[in-house]
Amino acid sequence: MAKSYKPRKSDKFAFGVWCVMNRGRDPFGVETRPAITGLEAVRGLAKHGAYGFEYHDNDLIPFDATAGEARKIVAELKRIMKSTGIRATAGTTNLFTHPVFRDGAFTSHDPEVRAFAVQKAMNLLDLAADLDTRVVLLWGGREGAEVDGAKDPVDALQHLRECVNFLCEYIIDRRYPILLSIEPKPNEPRGDMYLPTTGHALAFIETLEHPFMVGTNPEFAHVKMAGLNPYHEYAQALEVGKLFDVHMNGQKVGRFDQDMSIGADGLKEIFFVCKLLKDYAYAGTVAVDAHPFRTEIEPWDFVDRCMCSWRMLIEKVDALNSDREYRQLLGPLVAQKGPLAAALGQYTAANAAKLRGHAYRPDKMAVRPLPYERIDQIVNEVLMGVR
One of 59, 245, 257, 289 is an active-site residue; which one? Predict the structure, then answer.
């Protein structure tokens, strides 16, 4: 890695430990990399300069571990965190791997499955509090359907709401400084997932009993799977103060969830996500949720590449924002003012009367210059390093 792009703690890079634990298995082939434990993954991330790590409960503690085994693992994890300074920045509950969740967890028809899922999530919240994790992610890996005749989505959303409300009350009762974050995804592994986009998640959050405790963490790949624009999805959450975490990776539009490295595909799109976060002083972690290519023997080039790519993108954002021609072209567009612009800020009968009575000249307004071709070309030149 070029020296100037080595990560700094202030970059706040975080990786899911599941990313580096991924062994390269896919539906058509077995593992291509040796297994590493969650603790080994955390050690490796710290060694490579990551600020933090994200985790599923079962990344660290096996599903069938005894209470004593779990205590030993957590104690060792704390020793690693103390000695290296790496932080546990976000946690989540694995509610998708075990066959008990084959038809959902919080949205299962079976109330006993839903109760077990909430119990498992409560245990994760206890672990998160113990590790000083402030954000707990809710990714509904099995919350969806393939057979519409078998599952009523209204009932499913009501079950989901009931479970999230219960977890919020548990956090309040335990006085944990934890926020919940919904991670949308349109499909995979279910044919159709509930809360498939950021807009769906934000609408659902407003129906909860404690909406202030719940936000969202869009994932670049998930947005592109739906054929949408990541820049706009992240902006929608950010604009309403609900961008609690971000997941970054690379993805070809409309494909299966490829989870490629940052910059492996969609470079221009992720550049604008990077610009959005920089321009609006996003203070959270830059979390990577991706996997090394199946061709890799070990995961560490992947880790270095993602952090290096993001730092290069930040450099390009700074270059664009300081580009004289770009600023000269964009400035007049965003600074335009009309005689009645202030009237749109708040409805009053007087403002409405002013608008109704004003004589506009749409023919003149329609020929004002909008140099978007040139602006887009400047962006391309900055990204290509020729400017």
Answer: 59
